[in-house]
Structures are given as structure tokens and as C-alpha cells.
């Protein structure tokens, strides 16, 4: 295998509590097929991808979907536990690993390429979009007194895929100084171990399905992609 071969990890063992539907957001229908299959197929079509690991619960309905050539592994008690379980199944011959939110069904090939190029050049990379709203720090839950107003000009909202070296990520997991359930994104594992990470421009359409309204927005983006160009 070459140094540009890529393994993909899709954590899909979450309970979808914020979404609210009993069947889970990954099984909701988007343009005629489950959300998860959109995310999965984006990587199955990518020429650099050699291995895909899907972390799911043992009793998940996801296991009955037509997943194709995918390695199924057990989900963990948190997202990062699931990522670690899947990471341990990635063949040692594959240098690079992408971790992607299974609930981001509109990831484009161009975005995957952009992040992968930055990871190869710098060691680890992820897409991000500028924070457009004013951010205030306050003690939760609300109502609460404002602690400070943060300058949004240096703030970026992270997306996935987040791509890094397989060996570096495994090593970072062994050195993680905080419980894995407190880790909020995959690059943070590397940052806590002292590795530099880099951001590249993300895409507004690369949204994460968290609520039913997000599903409607994803439908809008899909219709926009398929619409004929204006004359």
C-alpha cells in the first residue's frame, strides 16, 4: 500500500438523543436512502480509501443496511471509545486515518481531498467554518451572568473528516490525560499529546444532522446540487 492510502472510521453508536426519533437520525431517509448510507458512500467512492470501519451497537438496526465492504466493530461508551475501537482494527499497512461523523451525509469528494492534502503536508487536518454569531461565555444553565464576550475572529467551528496518521493517533490515545468521554473532537486527542493540527476551509453544506430541521436543510442542499445551472 502507498503512503496515500486512507482508512475511514465512522462512529455510529450514538443514541441520537437530541434528534428525538426512536429509530435514530442515521436511519432517517434523505433523498430516498438512510442518512448513514450517504456518508458511507462518499468514502466508498473515493479512490484513496482502502478500509472503512463502522462502530455500531450490537443490536443496532444499522447492521441490517446494505453497507457493502465495511468492517463492523463494537461501539464504545462514548464517541472517542468508539473511535479507538475502530482504530484498533485498521490494518497497520495503512498510514492515514479519517474520522468522519456518520451524521454528516453531504461531505464532498473535494472536501475530502482538501483535508487529506493538508494532513499529508502537516500531519493532521480538519475542515472548519468561521463562527458567524457572537459567542459569550457564561455559567450554564441559563439564566446566568456573562463571564466574557469572545472575539469570533479567531474562532472556527469544526467539521469532519478529521485526518491524521494512524500511528500518531494510536500513540495519542495512550497518552490522553483526560477521560475519553470529555474529548469533544478527534484532533483534540492529538493536541493533548502535543501534536500540531491544522484547519482548512470547510463547507456550509457539510452539516451534521442533529435535529429534524437539519434533515430538511440537507434535503435543500441536495436539491440545490442537482438543480440545473441558471441561464
Labels describing this entry:
Spore Coat Polysaccharide Biosynthesis Protein SpsA, Chain A; alpha/beta; 231 residues
Query: How many helices?
Result: 6
How does CATH name the architecture?
Alpha-Beta Complex
The fold-level CATH name is Spore Coat Polysaccharide Biosynthesis Protein SpsA, Chain A
- Would you tell me the structural class of the helices and strands? alpha/beta
On the 0-100 scale, what is the average pLDDT? 93
Distance between the termini: 46 Å
Give the helix level as a range of percent. Answer: 25-40%
Radius of gyration, in Å, reads: 18 Å
Question: Which regions are unreliable across 5 or more consecutive residues at pLDDT < 50?
Answer: none
Count of distinct strands: 12
Listing every helix as H and every strand as E from the N terminus to the C terminus, the arrangement reads EEEHEEHEHEEEEEHHEH
Amino acid at each position: 500500500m502507498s503512503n496515500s492510502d486512507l482508512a475511514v472510521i465512522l462512529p455510529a453508536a450514538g443514541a441520537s438523543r437530541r434528534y428525538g426519533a426512536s429509530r435514530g437520525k442515521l436511519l432517517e431517509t434523505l433523498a430516498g436512502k438512510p442518512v448513514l448510507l450517504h456518508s458511507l458512500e462518499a468514502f466508498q467512492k473515493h479512490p484513496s480509501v482502502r478500509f472503512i470501519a463502522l462502530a455500531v451497537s450490537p443490536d443496532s438496526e444499522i447492521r441490517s443496511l446494505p453497507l457493502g465492504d465495511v468492517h463492523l466493530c463494537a461501539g464504545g461508551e462514548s464517541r472517542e471509545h468508539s473511535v479507538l475501537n475502530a482504530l484498533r482494527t485498521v490494518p497497520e499497512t495503512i498510514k492515514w486515518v479519517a474520522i468522519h461523523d456518520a451524521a454528516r451525509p453531504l461531505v464532498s469528494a473535494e472536501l475530502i481531498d482538501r483535508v487529506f492534502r493538508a494532513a499529508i503536508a502537516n500531519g493532521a487536518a480538519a475542515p472548519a467554518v468561521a463562527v458567524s454569531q457572537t459567542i459569550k461565555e457564561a455559567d450554564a444553565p441559563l439564566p446566568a451572568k456573562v463571564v466574557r464576550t469572545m472575539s469570533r475572529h479567531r474562532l472556527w467551528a469544526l467539521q469532519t473528516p478529521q485526518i491524521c496518521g494512524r500511528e500518531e493517533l494510536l500513540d495519542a490515545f495512550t497518552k490522553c490525560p483526560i477521560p475519553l468521554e470529555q474529548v469533544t473532537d478527534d484532533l483534540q486527542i492529538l493536541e493533548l499529546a502535543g501534536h500540531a493540527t491544522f484547519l482548512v476551509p470547510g463547507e456550509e453544506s457539510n452539516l451534521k444532522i442533529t435535529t429534524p430541521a437539519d434533515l430538511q436543510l440537507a434535503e435543500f442542499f441536495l436539491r440545490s446540487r442537482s438543480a440545473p445551472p441558471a441561464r
